[in-house]
Amino acid sequence: MSTSTHAPDDVAAQLRAAGLRVTAPRIAVLECLRACPHADADTVLTRVRERLGSVSVQAVYDVLHALTERGIVQRIEPAGHPARYEVRVGDNHHHVVCRSCGAVGDVDCATGHAPCLIPSSTHGFTIDTAEVIYWGTCPACRDAGTTTA
């Protein structure tokens, strides 16, 4: 399992192990995602700028892309919401998304027999991951009476 269990001080080692140069923007983005799971790019940009000062939007997107390509970060794309990024990778976990506010949470993969995770046809594909997104209303929105149309 390749979940994020690294201490903040070994971010550089994690980047090197993935074949990436260690740069201040890469360190800042990775540490932001460790502190703020399921952050969208705008949130990452804001937090990285708070830490580093001036950094371009393109630089943050480039870093997110590089981290995703190297398997350090996972990108999720709930329908109707901006892409989100997280450092929990490699364990085939799933997500729950609030229809009202867009809050995202992790859901561990079901164990035992889970027929919805076994496709009725693979169409010749070799299946290695099942992506499941549960939709609903988070406790805060439910308590506030917030609903979607």
Overview of the structural elements:
The chain is α+β, with helices and mostly antiparallel strands and 149 residues long. It folds into two domains: 8-76, Winged helix-like DNA-binding domain superfamily/Winged helix DNA-binding domain (Arc Repressor Mutant, subunit A); 92-144, Ferric-uptake regulator, C-terminal dimerisarion domain (Dna Ligase, domain 1, 2-Layer Sandwich), CATH 3.30.1490.190. It is built from five helices and six strands. It has helices spanning 11-17, 24-35, 41-52, 57-69, 139-144, and strands spanning 39-40, 74-76, 84-86, 94-98, 104-107, 133-136. Strands 1-3-2 form a three-stranded antiparallel beta sheet. A hairpin with a 5-residue loop joins strand 4 and strand 5. Helix 2 (24-35) crosses helix 3 (41-52) and helix 3 (41-52) packs across helix 4. The longest helix is centred in the middle third of the chain and has 13 residues, at 57-69. The radius of gyration is 17 Å and the shape is globular. The chain starts with 10 loop residues before the first helix and ends in a 5-residue tail after the last helix. Residues 1-6 have low confidence and may be disordered.
